[in-house]
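Reviewers of the previous submission asked for a worked example of the structure-prediction workflow described in the proposal, so we include one complete record here. The input consisted solely of the amino acid sequence. No template or homolog information was supplied to the procedure at any stage.
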Amino acid sequence: MQPFFGMTEEALSGWARSRGATPGAARALARFVLAQAAGRPAPERPSGKLLAQLEASFALPAAEVIADADGTVRFAVRLDDGEVVETVLIHQAVSDLRSRERWTVCVSSQVGCARGCVFCETGRLGLERNLTAAEIVAQYALAARHLQLRPANVVFMGMGEPLDNLEEVLRAIAVLREPSGFAVPERRITVSTVGIVPRMDELFARTKAQVAVSLHAVDPAQRRALLPVARKWSLPELRGCIAKAPRTVLLQWTLIEGTNDADSDADALAGFCAGLDVRVNLIPLNPGPVPSQRAPSMDRCRAFQKRLRDSGIRALLRMPHGQQVGGACGQLAGTRRPLRNHVAAG
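From that input alone, the workflow returned the following structure tokens.
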């Protein structure tokens, strides 16, 4: 993996200046590299000598590409050390509720995950290692090259806990937003966390990206049973952190039949949200590692959403995407999923 995939214009310019380039030549090199990585025309070609020193190759990792009938595409990405992470390109078509087609890239931030959420396939892997910013950005580049356009939305909701790899995640965001490169608006990037309280303030301070918190339960015992991280940081601590957030926080609630889908659960969630600047994202459980857990009926999901709305809580019911190819929320399995032929997507 070429490290420049994880370098901003400032970092690339600094590299060139350290090798004797003038500020103008350094800037030209940086913008050329960013544009080439993003698959877009470069404003000018830089010094051939500098390019030779950089040894720039814009090839991307090999990936198995599997498409769902709903338009979702799952990429099983083989990294240089043989580890596999999964990336999902999510398609939302024009509908009565959506006037424009929407594409979102869901990227992974780690190989595996240490947090062990019980309904998540990735949590069963344990943590192998963090991804570098270059490995994160390359996932977006794979999806963009496959689609032949640059999707405007990125979510850090793939494999791993982004706040356990905060520096590389922030570096990847800085690269993705570069105007000369992928030019993804920072406000259209979302970072999801299970609630690593000590790092949330830093996340809010260092990026304008949106923040999503995996909540799933507001009964302390129930949340501890679903998310082991809740044994370390309590709900009051998490709520206090959300209350200090400088912008709206998205609360994620995976609806599990008989666990957190009752009217009383909706009322408790509404109480938790009172006085907070939040929106609730309701996600019917996708088939995952626990066969006895399943999603409620769609009528029950809609009733839960209505009860929240009747309490004045903004709530969106998110339909599954990529479920048939194992690309939906909670289904990313990395090396636990047998790979077929590796297709060089670069």
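The two ends are 11 Å apart (CA to CA). We consider this example representative of the routine output the project will generate in years two and three.
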